[in-house]
Amino acid sequence: MPVRATKRGADRTRLEHDCDVLVCGASFAGLAVARELAGTGARVLVVDRYEIGERQTSACGIPTSWLSALDLGASLQQSFDALVVHTPFRTSRWPLPWSFSTFDYRELCALLWAQADSPTLEFETATVTGRSGNVVQTDRGELSAPLVVDGLGWRRVLSNEMPIQPPRARLSRGLEVHPAGRGSEMELWLDAGYVRAGYSWSFPAGEELRVGVGSFWPTHHVKEPTVRLAHDLGLAASGYQGNWIPHQLRRAVEDDVFFVGDSAGHCLPLTAEGIRTALYFGLACGRELRTVLEGRRTREQALASYSAFSDAHARKFRWLLALQRAVGQITPSRATSALVRAFENRRLTRWAFSHYLAIAPPSFASAAGSGRRSLSASASRRMPSSIAGSARLA
Ligand SMILES: Cc1cc2nc3c(=O)[nH]c(=O)nc-3n(C[C@H](O)[C@H](O)[C@H](O)COP(=O)(O)OP(=O)(O)OC[C@H]3O[C@@H](n4cnc5c(N)ncnc54)[C@H](O)[C@@H]3O)c2cc1C
Question: Do the strands 147-150 and 21-24 form a parallel or antiparallel pair, or are they unpaired?
Answer without folding.
Answer: parallel
